Amino acid sequence: MSKLLEVAGLTGGYGSSQVLFGIDMQVNEGEVVTLLGRNGMGKTTTLRTILGLNRPTGGEVRFRGQPIHAHSADHIARRGIAIVPEGRQIFKNLSVEENLSAFAARRNGRDNPWTLEKIYLQFPRLRERRSNGGGQLSGGEQQMLAIGRALMTNPHLLILDEATEGLAPLVREEIWSCLKALREYGLTIIVIDKYIKRLIGFADRHTILEKGKVVWQGDSAQLSAQPDLWDRYLSV
Ligand SMILES: Nc1ncnc2c1ncn2[C@@H]1O[C@H](COP(=O)(O)OP(=O)(O)OP(=O)(O)O)[C@@H](O)[C@H]1O
């Protein structure tokens, strides 16, 4: 399996406030990897630093073999990393189709790029709602739109921060089904979510953060066999 993302010794934070103290993690092509940890442990900051939204103070991020940690967020997005941000941040005054089309520009060297039609096949609900304004959608539909919009950039890596936060249980299951379909499609995914049991069923490997440091890494079988880890690092 080839390495898609390599993060080594990453440090950073906000101004003089250091949040990350040497994060190491690796994501291989086609894998689903999680970032776990209680609130405030540095998961979002790790993602923001990988995405170039926060400038690292040390360490390296390599994507598809090239260093990206000195590049702008825009450059990194164009290299093929897309984020479904916490809170979704869709354009509420644009229609579903306009939200999707606004992001449809970059093929990222793909032979078989995402199109509106492919997005609608993946998310039939978005086709039904294609003329509705983003602000008229339910929370689950908004999340599908945020995922669809990210896919329209033809990412090599899709990152979801709080994939199912604030959604009703049945809607959460719909989002997991969508993500499983994307996984089967071969997409590489990093996901943050609170539902550990679902993540164990969905992801290959997991990284647990505590106070800006990696305290455990392992696969789903290992995490599932060590419920003490859940109590120590994940329970609230
Ligand atoms: N914009 C900011 N300015 C200053 N400090 C921040 C900012 N955003 C987050 N922090 C601090 O950085 C630390 C890590 O926050 P981060 O959001 O990365 O955690 P998290 O693990 O993603 O948790 P959560 O689930 O609450 O988002 C926290 O102490 C938080 O208060």
UniProtKB/TrEMBL annotation:
SUPFAM superfamilies: P-loop containing nucleoside triphosphate hydrolases (SSF52540). GO terms for molecular function: ATP binding. InterPro entries: AAA+_ATPase, ABC_transporter-like_ATP-bd, ABC_transporter-like_CS, BCAA_Transport_ATP-bd_LivF, P-loop_NTPase. Residues 5-236 form the ABC transporter domain. It comes from the Bacteria. Pfam families: ABC_tran (PF00005). Keywords: Amino-acid transport, ATP-binding, Cell membrane, Membrane, Nucleotide-binding, Transport. PANTHER family: ABC TRANSPORTER ATP-BINDING PROTEIN, HIGH-AFFINITY BRANCHED-CHAIN AMINO ACID TRANSPORT ATP-BINDING PROTEIN LIVF. Belongs to the ABC transporter superfamily. This is ABC transporter ATP-binding protein. It comes from Herbaspirillum lusitanum.
